[in-house]
Amino acid sequence: MKAVAFHGKRDVRVDQVPDPTIEQPTDAIIRITSSGICGSDLHLYEVLGPFIDEGDILGHEPMGIVEEVGPEVTHIAKGDRVVIPFNISCGHCFMCDQKLYSQCETTQVRDQGKGAALLGYTKLYGQVPGGQAEYLRVPQAHFGPIKVPEGPPDERFVYMSDVLPTAWQAVEYAAVPDGGTLAVFGLGPIGQMCARIALHHGASEVFGIDLVPERLEMARRHGVHAVDLREHDDIAEALRSLTDGRGPDSVIDAVGMEAHGAPFGKLAQTLAGFLPDVLAEKMIEKAGVDRLSVLHATIDTVRRGGTISLSGVYGGMVDPMPMMDLFDKQIQLRMGQANVKRWIDDILPLVQEDSDPLGVEDLATHKLPLDQAPHAYEIFQKKQDGAIKVLLTP
Ligand SMILES: NC(=O)c1ccc[n+]([C@@H]2O[C@H](COP(=O)([O-])OP(=O)(O)OC[C@H]3O[C@@H](n4cnc5c(N)ncnc54)[C@H](O)[C@@H]3O)[C@@H](O)[C@H]2O)c1
Ligand SMILES: [Zn+2]
Ligand SMILES: [Zn+2]
């Protein structure tokens, strides 16, 4: 089969590899019909190379049709249409019983000191072949796959693999008070959906902060108060001035370490090199060069006694944290990998509503054949050609 494989920094290729087969009685084989490229894949593409081997198959946002199931997989059968969560969880351990599926003790990657294994996500998370491919072996398939109805397009469902539960959890963790306000830093797919979900949940106002015009524009289309980072020297002050001088009740960081493309000590120039010059300059000027700058901005922005929810992925152990501000402002901080299946009962009815309340049909900007994966990664990373979300269609 064809599969998108890692070959080095900024080098993914479509390789011919052996078809996957059932290895465990709890496995299933899925023929992929759509597979997203995630902001997390950009971390692999750019900086996590040391944790990934050449030839590893990428992708953790797949859906498709069941081809074959192992003898212990009974809730799905050949021919069913399914979405595959990016966490691999058993459904019956101590952690899964608490719906902390991203911490599953059956699949925890203990030799790396990490939580549940993930599809297509480095040795840190089990080195499981991913779903940007024609076929996928799904481990723990007696639990994970989410059965969805025939009829509506894949876009209605595919984001349940990652984007929607991640955003849903970020909003839950942000604990916006009834009728309160929320700021979302980063208007990639995760930030877009955080903003829409918060509005759906009744936030009185959601501010969305980014520096890419079409991302700001997409947020505006969905009722978000878009704030262009490039227009403000002090973004926290700008947000305070929009919220009676206090700051929003809750703040979500949907940017993560990739804000400056330099997690392991290098500087902003790396990512800036991928942006159009005007954006790059502004980015360096306004966003600073510290890779925690967004996290620091969220701490500065949130009102006293408010909550910060991190969904952006951070790596590294030695970054200084402004503990004095966190303490003095009495901030609650919550974070973590999404527990995908925890939120599906809430999300599935919404994505099936005719009115499309979360606007899932307005997120993907590109649907490209698997063969074009190298191009797809490039435009997504460089934010070219209006790319906000790319779906690969094997
Ligand atoms: N917690 C989870 O389970 C989980 C799941 C999926 C993704 N993620 C993480 O969420 C983050 C976002 O994912 P995505 O797919 O939306 O990625 P993305 O790369 O498309 O989005 C990031 C956005 O942040 C913007 N940005 C960069 N610097 C900024 C700054 N200083 N201020 C404001 N905005 C800035 C970028 O322009 C971009 O629009 C990534 O870190 C990803 O790894 C986490
Ligand atoms: Zn992801
Ligand atoms: Zn488990």
Report on the architecture of this protein.
There is one protein chain. The chain is of the alpha/beta class. It has 2 domains: 2-161 and 339-393, Quinone Oxidoreductase, Chain A, domain 1; 164-335, 3-Layer(aba) Sandwich (Rossmann fold), CATH 3.40.50. The protein contains 12 helices and 15 strands. The chain has helices at 39-46, 94-97, 163-174, 189-200, 213-221, 235-241, 269-272, 277-287, 293-301, 323-328, 344-352, 373-382, and strands spanning 2-8, 11-16, 28-37, 62-69, 81-83, 135-138, 146-147, 181-185, 205-210, 225-228, 250-253, 307-310, 332-335, 366-369, 390-393. The strands form 3 sheets. Strands 3, 4, 5, 6, 7, 14 and 15 form a 7-stranded mixed β-sheet that branches. The chain has a 6-stranded parallel β-sheet with strand order 10-9-8-11-12-13, sandwiched between helices. α3 (163-174) packs across α4 (189-200). The radius of gyration is 20 Å and the shape is globular.
Features:
394 residues; alpha/beta; Quinone Oxidoreductase, Chain A, domain 1; Rossmann fold; 7-stranded mixed β-sheet; 6-stranded parallel β-sheet; globular; binds nicotinamide-adenine-dinucleotide; binds zinc ion
The CATH architecture category of the largest domain equals Alpha-Beta Complex
Note the main sheet.
Answer: 7 strands, mixed
SSE pattern: EEEHEEHEEHEHEHEHEHHHEHEHEHE
Rg (C-alpha, Å): 20 Å
Number of strands: 15
Work out the count of structural domains: 2
CATH class of the largest domain: Alpha Beta
Question: Which cofactors or ions or other ligands sit in this model?
Answer: nicotinamide-adenine-dinucleotide, zinc ion
Average of the residue pLDDT scores: 91
Overall 3D shape? globular
End-to-end C-alpha gap: 10 Å
